[in-house]
Write a structure and sequence with these properties.
The structure holds 2 protein chains of 2 kinds. Chain A is mostly beta strands. Helix content of chain B is 18%, strand content 33%. Chain B has 4 helices and 11 strands; from the N terminus they run H-H-E-E-E-E-E-E-E-E-E-H-E-E-H. In chain B, a hairpin with an 8-residue loop joins strand 7 and strand 8. The chains are: A mainly beta, B alpha+beta. The interface between A and B is large, with 41 and 53 residues. Strand 7 of chain A pairs antiparallel with strand 3 of chain B, so a sheet runs across the interface.
Chain lengths: 114, 249
């Protein structure tokens, strides 16, 4: 997956890290120190849409078949997360309790065109 | 965006281009909301008095949640749940209230806030108590402590309490001891209550005379070392509340 630079055109992953101290949440979130709230942005031109390996799925296969047979469809292709990982957190959920949990699918690892 | 040939702020959601700062502020608010939603919290908890760091470090070690770096920050141990549904490990520290009846042990009160629309499945739960070694002379028989854990009913009297379990502990050296109370906690959660009150009595036996109770070795009450504050470790899983699903239907 592409890493977004300053000038974004094609589908890529934008890194965005928030330190809990910077948003005054460090008093109730014990760990980690921050959150990689990466997101996907950019265009999915026809050439990239549904390219296998980028966002391979049944939808992409059908889509590339249509494309290969020159059947121009109104379907547009979107830049979406294709790999995500959990966020492990330890936090105070009240005066006297600490909670540890792994929140699934919280961090975008890579992006691709549907 | 492709029709006009110019790149708009957000191709998929059509938000007009923003200047850098307000875009960052918007993203941070979105991230905050996402984290609170995923933790089933309506708003961020308001923490006025935190747990003493010594007790916190003890609990994190028991949670295998990670280690504490020299600068005091915590390095999380990434233990990824294999199941998709979200499990939680909770460490709840006891609030202590001294019993006004003489000789009885302080009562341990644990607070549990339950999320509406979810019922909780208690996978495992245990009470952790720190028991000091006996300072009796080594010549006698191995000192032991008989610990009794009671579920305390409402009100002050000792009469309406239910014995949950009894355990004989070898107190050759000070250590943490666990007392499994999974079924009790599941019944408590199913009852939708908020405060779980336990009473603990620890009688050292085998040292002073016949069944003489010589000293209390469980660290409880105001005099204890804060790093040895009793706590409960609970592993739970959220279940969609069957009643709630019916409503949905």
């Amino acid at each position: 997956s592409l890493q977004c630079g300053d000038d974004v055109t094609v589908c890529c992953k934008k890194d965005f890290y928030v330190k809990f101290k910077d948003i005054q949440w460090q008093d109730w979130i014990i760990a980690p120190e921050g959150y990689h709230m990466n997101y996907c942005m950019g265009q999915c031109p026809q050439a990239l849409a549904g390219s296998p390996g980028i966002a391979s799925s049944f939808h992409a296969t059908v889509f590339s078949q249509l494309k290969a047979n020159g059947i121009n469809t109104a379907v547009s292709s979107c830049c979406v997360p294709i790999q995500r990982r959990p966020l492990s957190m330890v936090y105070f959920n009240s005066q006297h309790s600490i909670v540890k949990t792994d929140v699934p699918d919280m961090i975008v690892e890579s992006c691709g065109c549907t | 965006a492709t029709t006009t040939g110019t790149t708009s702020g957000c191709a998929s959601c059509g938000i007009p281009p923003m200047e850098k700062d307000s875009e960052q502020r918007l993203l941070v608010e979105i991230a905050k909301q996402q984290i609170l939603n995923k933790l089933h919290l309506k708003e961020r908890p308001n923490i006025t008095s935190t747990v003493p760091s010594a007790a916190l470090i003890t609990a994190l070690r028991k949670l295998h949640a990670g280690r504490v770096r020299p600068d005091g920050t915590i390095e999380l141990e990434m233990k990824i749940n294999d199941t998709k549904d979200q499990g939680y490990e909770i460490v709840s520290f006891a609030e202590m209230d001294e019993m006004d009846t003489t000789g009885a042990q302080p009562r341990l009160t644990f607070q549990f806030l339950q999320e509406q629309g979810h019922s909780i499945q208690v996978l495992q739960s245990a009470l952790w108590l720190y028991v000091r070694s006996s300072d009796a002379p080594n010549s006698g028989p191995r000192p032991t402590v008989t610990a009794h854990i009671y579920l305390s009913g409402p009100g002050e009297s000792c009469s309406n309490r239910t014995l949950l379990l009894e355990k004989i502990l070898d107190v050759q050296k000070s250590n943490w001891y666990t007392f499994p109370i999974t079924r009790t906690l599941q019944a408590f959660m199913d009852g939708g209550q908020r405060l779980l009150q336990l009473e603990v009595t620890c009688a050292e036996t085998g040292v002073a005379g016949e069944n003489g109770v010589s000293q209390n070795l469980c660290e409880l009450g105001k005099t204890m070392d804060m790093a040895h504050q009793p706590f409960m470790v609970v592993q739970v899983r959220l279940r969609e509340d069957p009643k709630h699903i019916l409503q949905k239907r």
